[in-house]
Every structure is written in structure tokens, then in C-alpha cells.
Amino acid sequence: xxxxxxxxxxxxxxxxxxxxxxxxxxxxxxxxxxxxxxxxxxxxxxxxxxxxxxxxxxxxxxxxxxxxxxxxxxxxxxxxxxxxxxxxxxxxxxxxxxxxxxxxxxxxxxxxxxxxxxxxxxxxxxxxxxxxxxxxxxxxxxxxxxxxxxxxxxxxxxxxxxxxxxxxxxxxxxxxxxxxxxxxxxxxxxxxxxxxxxxxxxxxxxxxxxxxxxxxxxxxxxxxxxxxxxxxxxxxxxxx
Length: 240
Description:
This protein has one domain. Helix 1 (3-14) packs across helix 6. It is mainly alpha-helical. It starts with a helix and ends with a helix. The chain has eleven helices and no strands. Helices cover 82% and strands 0% of the residues.
């Protein structure tokens, strides 16, 4: 592990926010699956949807929150000068932060999905349906991937804005308001939500609204533009 990665890992390991995010991912995912299983449903599709609702919620919001926090927290508190003094090559710092912005939620969501899997399977069975282990794993993996799609773009937004509050506000606009604007404009096929949904359906082996190749291209384009704009600001910013 490089010194830059090690330094970022120590921050993640010692600070409270990452622990809260991971705990929320685990708790909400498992609790949601448990409640859905206890309440029950007469329809297997509804049972599956209800059982994975908690995973859907945390996959989107916890991932976005953590991606913004990885850069925005230090930017908002004026701590970046110390970070860049320790590692003057700013690109390495940004790459290390991006790595953990994706890796930590990915690991937490994967563990949460694995813990919830028996409950989701039981709920579907109680509703009169059945899923093979492969089908269930693909469904849960799709939900995890769907949540992670926005992470690089949101991280780029945090780089561009430079603080936690502004990053969260910009992320809300990006994920909640902009998709509606694109839909009204007839451009919803080029938004992150439909790309994320297509990636989810592809992994879950279900029909997609847009081709998977287009979804990946949309994801790559949003990520690249956001990260390039954010990096341009960080590279030239006078951090103090």
C-alpha cells in the first residue's frame, strides 16, 4: 500500500463518519429485509422488491454521502493544506480518496447484501415464489452496482465544489432534480439514473430500457466530465 493510500486509510479507519455510514448500510439493509419478510406478501415480485428496498435506499444515498465526504469534509474544514503538504502530488491524493470513496461503500454493501440474502429468499419463498442462489446473488449484486454507479460523478462534484455542504447540495440537484429536467426534455436516456437502472437489470439478467453499452457509455461520460472538472479546480486551487 502506498503512503498516500495508507494515509487516507488511517483517516477512514479513525474518523466517525465512515463507521456511521457502514453501520447504516448494514442496519438498514438487514432491517429492511427482515421487516419485509415478517410483513410478508402474496406476490413473489413484491416480496423481492420489498426485501431489497433497504438495500436500494442505502446503496444510493449512503454511497453518495460518503463520496462527497471523502473530499468535501477536508475541503470545508480547511484541512487540505496539511494533506497537500504531506503529499504535494495532488493527483495521488485525489486518486486515493476516489479509491476509498468507491471501495468502502462497495465492501459494506456487498456484506449487507450477503447478510440480507437469506431473509430476501425466505420472503420470496413465503410468497409462493422461488429463486436459485445464482438468481438471488445476481439480483443483489445488481442493486449494489446500481448504487455505486453515481460514486465517481458525485466525488467529482465534491472536488469541484470543495466543501461538504455545497457538495451535498450539488449532489441533491444531480441525483434528484436533474433527472426530472432531462426527462421533461426528452433526454432521460442520457441521465445517470437510467444508466444505473440498465446496469442493474443487466446484472440481474432482466430486460433493459437502453442497451447496456449505452448505459456504460453514459456512466463513463458523466464520471469523466465530473472528475476532469473537479481535478481542474483542485490542481489550480490555492488551498490554505
